[in-house]
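Job type: complex structure
Entries:
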Amino acid sequence: MPMNEGPPPLLPVAEALARILQGLAPSQAESCALQDVVGRVLATDIAARLSLPPAAVSAMDGYAVRAADCTATAALLTRVGESAAGKPWDGIVTAGEAVRIFTGAVVPDGADTILLQEDVSATAETDGATITVNEVPREGQFIRPAGLDVTAGDAILAAGTMMSARLIALAISAGHTEVSVWRRPHVGILSTGDELVAPGGTPGPGQIISSNATYLLSFAAACGAVPVDLGIARDRPGEMLACVRAATVPLDLVVTSGGASVGTHDHIVDDLSASGTELGFWKIAMRPGKPLIHGRIDDIPLLGLPGNPVSSAVCANVFLRPAVARLSGGNHAPQMVSAKLSLDLKANDRRQDYLRATLAYDEEGLPVVTPARKQDSSMISVYAGANALLVRPPYDAPRQAGDMVMAMPLDPLL
Amino acid sequence: MPMNEGPPPLLPVAEALARILQGLAPSQAESCALQDVVGRVLATDIAARLSLPPAAVSAMDGYAVRAADCTATAALLTRVGESAAGKPWDGIVTAGEAVRIFTGAVVPDGADTILLQEDVSATAETDGATITVNEVPREGQFIRPAGLDVTAGDAILAAGTMMSARLIALAISAGHTEVSVWRRPHVGILSTGDELVAPGGTPGPGQIISSNATYLLSFAAACGAVPVDLGIARDRPGEMLACVRAATVPLDLVVTSGGASVGTHDHIVDDLSASGTELGFWKIAMRPGKPLIHGRIDDIPLLGLPGNPVSSAVCANVFLRPAVARLSGGNHAPQMVSAKLSLDLKANDRRQDYLRATLAYDEEGLPVVTPARKQDSSMISVYAGANALLVRPPYDAPRQAGDMVMAMPLDPLL
């Protein structure tokens, strides 16, 4: 490890992210039943096959009538039938007639208006009953016209949309049962380091339990990827490459953690040079998480996160989550929330700072952000206890309690 | 369906929710590997088995020394060994000695301070090299003491906590491989109504495709439940009960949609009376979603949502999500966000209003909420296109563009 090599200039976070995303795209579309696509991304646009509602329907319980018959209170009508949801009345409403109708039921031909049931008196709840109009209606009231919601042929969902339960409901209602979505990307997770002991093992002197792999496997899965555990690569030349080549499924992305420890750097250079092409050892203008490796291994895109668990986790939110979204056919830009700072902060240096923080909403729904007292990037407990990152741009001025600052909420599952 | 029965007084949303949650509890704990518990809820408290770090470690790359040897610049030390992550140096640092050390490596006995590598000159990167102190250190600097992060025996996670990737990392680091979590609740989803056609079918006159079941199955799964499809119950006495009894797994909750259509009401009363106990037909002070059924069927808690897809979806967010969280051993209170209203709104009536809306953050991170122009509760497309509900309390005064109002963000997966 040469010691007197000057550090490269720091790379801005946004530029690092843009470079990472540039090389990534979803690989393959597949057809999937709508009940199984929560979190998946559409590969094609979707048009409605059916109109909603398919015919004019009543918006209320009442009577379907002709407005021309109801121009005065005390007008009398005769009930001639009933239209219920799923059981339309197939006659034609003519002068002086009313059809009992319920919410969602088809408005019979001839009728142009719905009288609310509370605006009439009915002699009985049977055909032949006399209906007295107590309130003059507005013509057309309480009718939902055919196609009010969706018209057959309308574009309803665009390629690139991530599906939610509510979008599934829309697609189902419009006549679909399956849609084309991008395959979930296979993301290989590889830890590196002689100091790591697999979970369940007993750490010897100087050793620690490897938590990054399980974190990243859980993280990738919760982001919509299929995580592939590539194990722990020891600090020996060729071991990274061997672990990646041992994967039993084709990988869309390899994510490593660690590799900045003594000696490892050279193995990574050797492994990646033996197998690949461009190779970036980026020093990013962020804290924590300065060192990031970017390249390809066996022509698979590679993202090398820091070994420090907190740095690795922050980089996973800032870089890996958008990368998985891109490989899934979608897009992820973290939502930034303006929040009131609860304590003073000194001026920031040249790195964008991601302070572990608690974001709370007060009773009036206003966000307040409190950075953790200890910001040591080795402290997993502090990161685990945070629900947001307070993001300070490079050279941010000193801030006082009460100032508005930017926070990035952490996903409750990540 | 009696028509001149006066409507019961409207039940406030909070009271309805409290009554629903009252009867619900998680049923059974199970041991689960940590890599599989994202979104699951801890059934027991968790204490650390290991301290983090297990021994004092260096926070930086440099040299482990005795501060007493470095009280002046130009002090000279002799490099006697190297401590790297996973490869500690097991000697004792004595007067005039320095041990090369890297971030995360164990601080050798005898040393009490870390010199930054940029604050020294070294004649070589080998043992025996002479190290010149160029910057007088502060005693103890850049050492992370044993247990800084977590001390063995400390409580680190409380029962009732929903596990995230970052909490998994903490538990793994602290020596755990599996934890006790509550079993995912089995939630049966039952649609009711003669007007419904199963997805993929062709609706006849007056019929519509059933979207609620797929919506609720997707919703329940995304909330952490195991959804159980109970099919469509037609409007005949005994059919609901038959569908529920046909389930092949024990159910923790039955969710119905529909059942307020003509004739169905009586079947529900008959079915539930035949099988159960208390039965509430609630008219809740909310829009959409006024009618809600609450009771037990075969002694299984039952939540009857409206058949209107938008009402059903809003009620799922307001009532079902907290119910699933409670059955999962956790807790869900929707987060309310104060947001700037982008247009004027008239005064609200006696019902709490959930307007379909778009919540966007401007460049300064400030939330702006825009209610959809059409609020017809039959319009699935409007609900599908919303990402928040603008919540107006009963009797809310008229609001003007620029006023702050309360919004409930919709989960991107729900």
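Summary: Residues 337-409 of chain B form a domain with the Beta-clip fold (CATH 2.40.340.10). The CA atoms of residues 332 and 375 of chain B lie 26 Å apart.
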